[in-house]
Write a structure and sequence with these properties.
The protein has 149 residues and is an alpha+beta fold. It has one domain (7-147). Helix content is 29%, strand content 36%. The protein contains three helices and seven strands; from the N terminus they run αββαβββββα. The chain has helices at residues 7-30, 58-69, 141-147; strands at 40-44, 49-54, 71-74, 86-100, 103-114, 121-125, 131-136. A seven-stranded antiparallel β-sheet has the order 2-1-4-5-6-7-3, sandwiched between helices. The termini are far apart. Keywords: Signal. Residues 1-27 form the signal peptide.
């Protein structure tokens, strides 16, 4: 089963990915060597920028791994709303293998698309940077509360 994704969606996903990369790079440059983990970031879709960056932790890793473990399949024809909400990026300490139906993907980052009142979806990229939108059933409220947005 192949997932069809619109050009607008691909553009939004790549914009999010590209806008978060400089913040990751600057965080690495500012790192004094005591922290080996890339930060967790919140990207405000309406503002078009990263609005919060917090140190990654075991707790954030647990959230992301639990979300990936609760994947119910690919998000068919899902389009994240480009007018509201946030995209949260949680870099994984170790790459994770995700099973979504008949598709198996190995990923190093988990992106949570959050828009109040709409279904939450995950975005992951495989080793070739191919995007996959995923449906999942895990509770994100504790993560959102911890992020404070």
């Amino acid at each position: 089963m192949k997932m069809k994704v619109s050009a607008k969606l691909i553009s939004l996903l790549m914009l999010v990915f590209c806008l978060m990369m400089p913040a990751v790079a600057s965080a690495r440059l500012a790192d004094d060597g005591t922290a080996s983990q890339r930060p967790v970031q919140a990207f405000d879709i309406a503002a078009g920028k990263v609005v919060k960056s917090v140190p990654n932790s075991k707790e954030f890793q647990t959230y992301a791994i639990n979300w990936l473990g609760s994947v119910t399949g690919l998000a068919p024809q899902t389009k994240p709303d480009d007018k509201c909400g946030y995209v949260f990026r949680i870099p994984l300490n170790e790459p994770a293998v995700v099973q979504a139906g008949s598709v198996t993907v190995r990923t190093a980052d988990v992106f949570l698309f959050y828009c109040p009142g709409k279904p939450q979806i995950l975005l992951i990229f495989d080793e070739n940077r191919k995007p996959y939108l995923l449906q999942f059933k895990a509770d994100t409220k504790p993560f959102l509360a911890q992020m404070g947005l």
